[in-house]
Amino acid sequence: MSVVTAAARAIAFYLPQFHPIAENDAWWGPGFTEWTTVTRARPLFRGHAQPNLPADLGFYDLRVAETREQQARLATEHGIEAFCYWHYWFAGRRLLERPFDDVLRTGSPRMSFCLAWANQTWSGVWHGAPERTLIEQTYSGDADERAPAHPCGI
Fold first, then answer.
1. By the 8 A CB rule, do 106 and 122 touch?
2. Cα gap 114→87, rounded to integer Å
3. Residue 96 neighbours by CB distance under 10 Å
4. CA–CA gap between residue 27 and residue 36 (Å, rounded)
5. For 100-143, how does the pLDDT look when each residue is reduced to its tens digit (9 = 90+)?
6. 112-117 vs 93-95, strand pairing mode
């Protein structure tokens, strides 16, 4: 009897929050992206180097196909085999979906992927307003499961 072992694969989480969306404009002001949060970071203890600013790709915008291609190239060069895209689904409403939808629509970058559902309520906790609910995560069961499929097939 032979035993087959599979090697572990390096898969990087892909946070699609580096482009503006109407909801963030309404909640935090025009042009808000995660770059806004990154640049506001401050050291919390001795030796804590913040803000940690981007290097090779600069302050990129994930709506730009060339940016996603560069990310995939860098990831591959450093042993990453796939991206795990954060998927935001709120009872039939998706947010920050454009980068992943563009990848599905164009087939580029040509890199393996999977999805991870970020299934929590969004609040203002990261921005000093923890009592503020931006969009609530609900679990509606059958109704949610029967929601029409997304045009890209997800």
1. no
2. 10
3. 22
4. 13
5. 999 999 999 999 999 999 889 999 888 888 899 999 998 877 77
6. unpaired
- What integer pLDDT is reported at residue 5 of this predicted model? 76
Tell me the chain's radius of gyration from C-alpha atoms.
Answer: 18
Strands (E) across the chain are located at 11-14, 82-90, 93-95, 112-117, 122-124, 129-135
Q: pLDDT value at position 1?
A: 67
CB 96 within 8 A of CB 17: yes
22: CB partners within 8 A, 6+ apart: none
**Rounded CA separation 19/53 (Å):** 16
- Token representation of residue 122: 């969004």
Tokens, residue 111: 């890199």
Compute the residue count for the chain.
154
